[in-house]
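Single-chain item
Fold in token form
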Amino acid sequence: MASPFFIVGSPRTGSTLLRRLLISYTDVAIPPESGFLAEYLTATHVGLEKRKKVFCSDPEFNYWPIDIEYDEIRHCKDMISCIRYAHKKYARINDKANWAQKAPKLVRTGQLWLEQMPDCKLIHMVRDPRAVVNSLRESKYHNLHIEHGSNRYINDTEIGLLLENTSPTRVMRLSYEGLISSPDNSLQRICNFMGLKEGPGTSEYLFTLTPNELKFGHHSNLNKKIEIPFSDKWESALNRKEIKVIEHKTAHLMKVLGYYRVTKDSQDLPKIKLEAILHHLMHTCSHSWKELTQRPDFFMIAKRRWQLGNINKMLTDFSSGL
């Protein structure tokens, strides 16, 4: 049995592509993104039995899809055991021997996962900040202003780098650029790191998008052959002023990760915070309305957060721009 692992990092860094490659070419099962799992670990003020009962009825398991009855986890001594059980059941259903989890924002609770699951490892996905911020802006779901996109990138990437430094044997860095330029080599590195058996080569592949991906337009490029130029889309999508802002804010991370700047700081660097705040407020209102009207399980998820004492999390996420 290989080590369970989590694919984490800033959003839009290629974690979904990596998930698809691992599912297709290794003996590992990875359910859809499940950032909600961390809520069960952090809600320590709520009794274990109550958390287990809420866990069984969590509406987000419908996206896996998987059903978990309370009797199945009745004897679990902690929430980590419940989470392990859910993933092992998912792996069995998908005829896989190993399991992993792909949820970029779990990087924010990465240290907690490393502490409570001593046998797990993390794959820290990184990517050129200009590409990430541009992707966050163009994404229909995120639609972040470059100011907020840069802040989110900085926050998540700094946490990931800290995890690399504090747990070097359990955290592996993988760049998006390296993944698309050499998928075979990237998978081999992961297999060696996790103790997985290597699968066939990945130089030619074609993925079939799920109904939800087709409906919402998520990851529409994943059913195409990998193309290296796609990673440089930001060069034509961003104007000079936007590139300068992103590079100015993320300069320290670009240096650490080996990305080169194409602009220099100057006294006329635009101040766009007010513009960013207004954009964020408009997007928050629009996004909230879509969640209320288009997501049937919205109130069920709100109920879960209320039961776990995390109802303020939605408000915090919206107000912080993260």
